[in-house]
Amino acid sequence: MSADERRRMIVQSVLPLMVEHGAGVTTSQIARAAGIGEGTVFRVFKDKDELFATCFAEALKPDQVLDAIAVIDLEQPLDDRLVEAADALSAHLQRMGALMAAMHGSGKHPERGQVRRDGRRESMSAMRDAMTELFEPEKDRLRLPAAQLAGLFLSLLFSGRMRFGDTADEPTTMELVDVFLNGAMGAA
Fold first, then answer.
1. pTM for this one?
2. Residue 42: CB atoms within 10 Å
């Protein structure tokens, strides 16, 4: 196994542990989850801080959600495509949120600064591009360009997934998609 493959394998093994244990995850737990010896962890990463930083960077990558959006069948109705994409995006946000909450609760915070801002910008751009593809089959019927609608949809989805107290009032994915496509006003 190459060094890069070993790094990726360790990171994928550690992410769920970080959500569960925060910064309190032990090297023993890391090694056991990755199926390696404890010493191997520190041959690949100089310390736990470097491992955590690498895990944060990996969690911010939208690869998994982009893959899920890419396989959405463009033959199905637009509302079904958007619900499927919204569910994948929501799962991505929940994974990131769980990791950030666990680490914040244990006193570790993701690295701040330009690298994180650039990564977030790149992630958002990649997600908008993927969402744009879902709108393309209807491009002749759209009121706005597909890329603009993709950005608006992401804004609505991300703001709609924020907790505003009582979760019973939180809109379902289908409700968000319906309001996005049909507006807030009912038939007269």
1. 0.76
2. 15
